[in-house]
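>> Question from a student workshop board

For tomorrow's exercise we were told to take the sequence and the ligand below, predict the bound structure, and bring the output to class. My setup keeps failing. Could a helper post the expected result so I can at least see what it should look like? The ligand is flavin mononucleotide.
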Amino acid sequence: MISDAIETTQCQRKDPVDLFHSGHFVKICAPMVRYSKLAFRTLVRKYNCDLCYTPMIIAADFVRSVKARDSEFTTSKGDRPLIVQFAANEAQVLSDAARIVCPFADGIDLNCGCPQRIHDDLKRTVDLCRKAEATGVSWITVHGRNVEERHQPVHYDAIKIIKQNMSIPIVANGDVKTLKDAENIHHMTGTDGVMVARGLLANPAMFAGYEETPLKCIQDWVDIALEHGTPFTCFHHHLMYMMERITSKQEKRVFNVLSSTSAVLDYLNDHYGV
Ligand SMILES: Cc1cc2nc3c(=O)[nH]c(=O)nc-3n(C[C@H](O)[C@H](O)[C@H](O)COP(=O)(O)O)c2cc1C
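>> Workshop helper replied:
Here is what the output should look like for this input. Compare the format with yours to find the bug.
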C-alpha cells in the first residue's frame, strides 16, 4: 500500500537510466497484469533481474480512488529500481497519477503497446519513436510484432532498425525464454536491454542463467509469497507457470486443481522436498 510504503521507500530513488550506461544489456521484467506484482518482482530481483515494471494500472482509477491505489500498487524498500506502468488517454490524468506515485518509483511507463506495436510501414514506427524521443522520454521498449501478429516470429530486424534510428536507449521485447536468447537478441539488434514476460513466468531464475526453474527458486517463491500474504490464486498460478516445464501431464492434472495453500505446500513437500 502506498500509505505503508511512504517511510520505507521515499528516499531510495535510483535513476534507472544509469543502468543503460553500465556497459551491460539491462535485464527487465515486463509489465504483466495480475503477475508482475511486488512478490514476483522480489523473486525475479533475487535472480539477476535489473529492473521491474508493475502491472498496467488504469491512471484514471488510480487518481480517483484511494482504494484502487492501495489494491493496485504495493511496494517495499527493496523493490527498486521500479517503473510504474499506466494506461491513460488524457495527459492531465497521466500527469496526476505520476505525481502521486513518483515518491515510490523510479520511472513512469505509458502503455502504448496494446494493440499497436510495430507498424507494417516501419517508417511510421520510427517516426512515432522519434516523436516520443523529442518529448523527452528516457527509453522506449519495442515489441517486435504488428497488430495482426500473435504467434508469428518476432521481427528483430525491425527492432534493430528502430535502434539504429534513435539516440535514447531501446529495449527489445518478445519471445525471450533464456539468458542465451536475451544475449543473442542483444547482439542481433544492438538494443540496450531486453524485456521478458512469459519467459520469466515460466522460469523466474532465467536471467541468472538457469535453463529451467530450479527447486531453490520454487522454495524462494513459496517463502516470498507467504511472507507477502499473496492470495491463493496468484500463489498457485505462479507455481503452475514455474513448474510447467518440469512436471509431467499426470502431475499437472493433480497439482493444477489443488485448492488451498496447505494442499500446495503438502504437494511440494511430498514431491520435491520443498
Ligand atoms: C500475463 C501477461 C500480462 C501482461 N500484462 C501486460 C501489461 O500489464 N502491460 C503491458 O504493456 N504488457 C503486458 N503484457 C505483454 C508483455 O509485457 C509482453 O510485451 C508480451 O508478453 C511479449 O513478451 P514475451 O514474449 O516476453 O512474453 C502481458 C503479458 C502477459 C503474458
